[in-house]
């Protein structure tokens, strides 16, 4: 079993929709380079063409 990693040691990205940072998740292990949004909500808002939450 690999050694445990602390949450602070995981890679992070900035969400393309809301601008908030989010951390790596196990389910994104194989597609981490393609992940752009922190949640399903941000992904669906981006497809609808919603405004950024910070600019409202």
From TrEMBL:
<dbReference type="Pfam" id="PF10013">
    <property type="entry name" value="DUF2256"/>
</dbReference>
<dbReference type="InterPro" id="IPR017136">
    <property type="entry name" value="UCP037205"/>
</dbReference>
<protein>
    <submittedName>
        <fullName>DUF2256 domain-containing protein</fullName>
    </submittedName>
</protein>
